């Protein structure tokens, strides 16, 4: 069986790097053959799996500096047929790639909005007057550099090597501890890795809307988890896109959805939510864990 794995392209993105690490693990531990399939946006990456054009997608969901990737969670809410198989945590080191001879000659910096935000302090300090232009990915604008010698792109070392481009500055993150969490997503009720049902998953992701914007509308669902002793590792709101002031709530809990306490929580949530979606239970692994399993 050959798995098609979708990711944000073009080649050289951090999503592709995360996918490659996951692919290496699949091939050496599970014996599965894979083909990476780049897509021009995160939304198209997830839709490829929903529509059956790929079996898996590797998408960024949260960064330690800039927070959640809204395109990922918004698209996951819209698509009812996807589930999270695994989460990978990968360190991110940004570089400034340019043909310019010095920082003083740079007038424009391109990159994905997340990368620009993760380097905001560095950009304000060293390139305070440049024009910042957001792009679909950190590698999409690299093709502009040969023609625009006063432009730069914030991307990865691997992208610079892949496209044979010069690195002007290495390490432009605002903080050295910069990590991104990626989700490995499949269609619902599909287990690519054939994980044993006896293995406990560490996290469950879910989202819900509430029937009305009234006092206690959010507190009551959250109190269910508190009463049952279930810890929340993340909570955030996103607009429903139906009306100003209406929100969806995305929650990560430190529990497996199959556990009795979580089953009770999910049942009780139905009384206080308008729509409740369970995105799946999964484990969160640093990428070096995959490396250790491969080499061990």
Structure in words:
With 296 residues, the protein is an alpha/beta fold. It has three domains: 2-91 and 179-192 and 284-295, Periplasmic binding protein-like II (D-Maltodextrin-Binding Protein, domain 2), CATH 3.40.190; 95-170, D-Maltodextrin-Binding Protein, domain 2, CATH 3.40.190.10; 203-282, ACT domain (Alpha-Beta Plaits, 2-Layer Sandwich), CATH 3.30.70.260. The protein has helices at 14-30, 42-50, 70-78, 113-118, 120-126, 157-162, 219-227, 260-269, 287-295; strands at 2-8, 33-39, 56-63, 67-68, 82-91, 95-97, 108-111, 131-134, 151-155, 167-170, 179-187, 203-209, 232-239, 247-253, 275-282, 284-286. Strands 1, 2, 3, 4, 5, 11 and 16 form a seven-stranded mixed sheet that branches. It has a five-stranded mixed sheet with strand order 8-7-9-6-10. The protein has a four-stranded antiparallel sheet with strand order 13-14-12-15, covered by helices on one side. β1 (2-8), α1 and β2 (33-39) form a beta-alpha-beta unit. The protein starts with a strand and ends with a helix.
Helicity, in percent? 25-40%
Radius of gyration equals 20 Å
Write the CATH fold name of the largest domain: D-Maltodextrin-Binding Protein, domain 2
Number of helices: 9
Largest sheet: 7 strands, mixed
Overall mean pLDDT score? Answer: 92
CATH class of the largest domain: Alpha Beta
CATH architecture of the largest domain: 3-Layer(aba) Sandwich
Strand content: 25-35%
Q: Tell the overall outline.
A: globular
The helix/strand order is EHEHEEHEEEHHEEHEEEHEEHEEH
> How many E-type strands?
16
Q: For this structure, what is the CATH homologous superfamily of the largest domain?
A: Periplasmic binding protein-like II
Category from helices, strands and their pairing: alpha/beta
Uncertain residue segments: none
How far is the N terminus from the C terminus?
25 Å
- Tally of separate domains: 3
């Amino acid at each position: 069986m050959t798995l098609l794995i979708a990711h944000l392209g073009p080649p050289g993105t951090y999503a592709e790097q995360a996918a490659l690490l996951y692919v290496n693990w699949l091939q050496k531990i599970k014996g599965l053959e894979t083909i990476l399939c780049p897509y021009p946006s995160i939304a198209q990456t997830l839709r490829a799996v929903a529509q059956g054009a790929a079996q898996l997608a590797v998408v960024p969901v949260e960064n330690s500096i800039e927070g959640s990737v809204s395109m990922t969670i918004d698209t996951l809410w819209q698509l009812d047929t996807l589930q999270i198989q695994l989460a990978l945590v990968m360190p991110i080191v940004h570089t400034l790639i340019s043909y310019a001879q010095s920082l003083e000659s740079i007038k424009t910096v391109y990159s994905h909005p997340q990368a620009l935000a993760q380097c905001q302090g560095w950009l304000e300090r060293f390139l305070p007057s440049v024009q910042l232009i957001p792009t679909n990915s950190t590698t999409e604008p690299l093709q502009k550099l040969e023609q625009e010698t006063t432009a730069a792109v914030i991307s990865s070392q691997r992208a610079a090597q892949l496209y044979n481009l010069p690195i002007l500055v290495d390490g432009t993150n605002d903080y050295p501890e910069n990590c991104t969490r990626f989700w490995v997503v499949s269609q619902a009720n599909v287990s690519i890795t054939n994980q044993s049902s006896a293995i406990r998953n560490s996290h469950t992701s879910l989202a819900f809307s509430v029937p009305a914007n009234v006092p206690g509308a959010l507190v009551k669902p959250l109190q269910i988890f508190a009463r049952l002793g279930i810890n929340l590792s993340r909570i955030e709101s996103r607009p429903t896109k139906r009306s100003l002031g209406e929100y969806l709530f995305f929650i990560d809990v430190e529990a497996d959805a199959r556990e009795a306490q979580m089953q009770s929580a999910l049942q009780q949530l139905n009384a206080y939510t308008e729509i409740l979606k369970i995105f799946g239970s999964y484990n969160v692994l640093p990428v070096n864990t995959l490396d250790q399993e491969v080499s061990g």
